[in-house]
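quick one, three chains, predict together pls
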Amino acid sequence: MNRSYPFLVLAAVGLFATAPVLIDLAPYESTMGLVQKIFYYHVPSAMVMFLSALVCGVASALYLFRKNTAADRWASSAAELTVVFGLIVLVTGPLWARKAWGVWWQWDARLTSTLLMWMIFAAYLLVRRFGGPGAEKLAAAMAVFGMANVPFVYVSVNIWRTIHPTTRVVPTLAPGMRGVFWFAVLAFMVLLALLLPLRARLGARREELEELYLMGDEGE
Amino acid sequence: MKVDFEDVAVRELSRHYGRRRALSRVSLTCRAGEVLGLLGPNGAGKSTLLAILATLLAPSAGDVRYGDLDLRDAGPALRARIGFLSHDLHLYPELTARENLRFFGQLYGLDRVEARVREALEHAGLSQRGDDPVSGFSRGMRQRLALERALLHEPRLLLLDEPFTGLDDASVGALVTRLRALRAAGRIIVVVTHDLDVAEALLDRLAVLKDGRLVALENASGRIREHYRAFVVSRTS
Amino acid sequence: MFFRVAWLVMRKDLTVEVRSREILYTTAFFAVACVLVFSFALVKEGRPLEDAAAGILWIAVAFAGTLALGRTFERERHSETLRALMLAPSPRAAVYVGKLLGIVLLLLVVEAALVPLIGLLFNVPILARPLLLAGLLAAGTVGFAAVGTLFAAMLVRARSRDVLLPVLLYPITIPVVIGGVRGTAALFELPPSSEMAGMWMALLLFFDVVFVTLSLWTFEPLMTE
């Protein structure tokens, strides 16, 4: 949170304003047609979701073992963003899948682990909201365990046949699509870089407010 | 590693739950061979202070020192020197009195557990009922048993939350005598109580808490009741 | 010291349970009720769906396990005895291990009744590879209970703990359910596939190692209020 912040806001607005134009101009994919364009939102959201989940897991571990309260604020902010971006992934995915696979949902490794990851971070938020005093620690444990859980989910679900397009799709994209795709990724990353510190700062402000209330009580 | 200490020093201790302040900048010291009473209306922070002294609760700010040892470096060795009689009694109702004592005796890694258990049952006046499950005991009997459980490992620091609740007059007298003997043996005793009669008979010093703040800390004279009124009742109105 | 404390805590839990048998009876009955409810959903025209037996077995274990976890820690909450255990001059992780062993033993007893019932109702060969089946159940139960014991212990002080326990526990223990169901289904096939079951068993054991280690590591910082 410093002077670079207004610049970030401008950048994000600019990127998100330009992206639809670029996506519109990008070539049509031959078999999927218009639906393929969901890809420009779906994949970057998924990337941002996993990055944000990683931030939450690492920050939670720091909070748990180092008792670092700033880390807890970052963790809770990252968890909220994980759930939001995860929701975008989980809504756009089935829209594409209906056209590509003929079904809304497939029980393959990527889909299932994404859904489960989303559930873990939704549970994180539920505990913080309804757990009462001391729930922050419980939530932090949930995030740490959730991180450790992801490889297990992935491996165990993967033993069923996986039909999700793999990461190898990106390098094989037509040149006209590749540039637009990375532009969209950049836009989402900037959005995360914008929202995460903002939300963490809000948390810090709330804590300051609590402290002011406490100090106000002292002086009465 | 064996830990021992002659005093417990609380400095600028605060604990809050969100916006609710349970303890606010409390400072006091308790020494060996002294009974310190914590008095105050409900919700004044007495139990919170005891829980922090027992290492169960982490303070939000301030520190506690047990002799040379800081609360934050506290570990099993320090816990072995603390006896805590909570309002919740910490007894398993399904187990008999003897089994409760034996379980905690073994958990603390004590020697001659059976002999200690027998003595403890005698002290509690429960020698005849030792093999009955605690669920069938009256509040007073449980209270006496819980006290003996807290004393089983001969702690240096004894924290008692409302130890006189549910006791009949004879038991109160016995408990006062018992605590005096422990005081003479050099224990540090902190008692939370509402019973001003007992307070007058037992306390060396008293600390009055109100709304999480320490409003008085002084040597106990024979006029605790008046002081207590002056500090608590008049300020409420 | 560590294992002596764990042993003491487990023996205390079992003594209490043997005396009241409350958790054992209610959990076992609940598990049987689960089997029946899910049978109505998964049996069509007198024939169970493919792999229904394995699925129902593990659903019953997971549901009954949640119930047993909740009840076990409700007992420690009753007179705040969990705090008394935290006050004992022993490594706090030892208390965790003791509680974990108690719950695992209890669930294994429930499973010992559940498996023959499943075999009877669904006509599956439970005795084709008895050791592998027992191993799968034990490994799955340890993994489930390892996470469950930690969360249930933390939730003792939380509001709405009854509903939060499954909310936290199920997403994390999904790999146990997948591994358990798939491994058991492989054993219930004709002929049983030891190879598949062995592979899932390896996954479950790996899960156990990772999550028991994580729990031991986080128990102490988590239990300080």
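The interface with chain C takes residues 64-65, 67, 116, 119-120, 123, 126-127, 130-135, 137-138, 141-142, 144-146, 148-149, 152-153, 155-157, 159 of chain A (CB under 8 Å).
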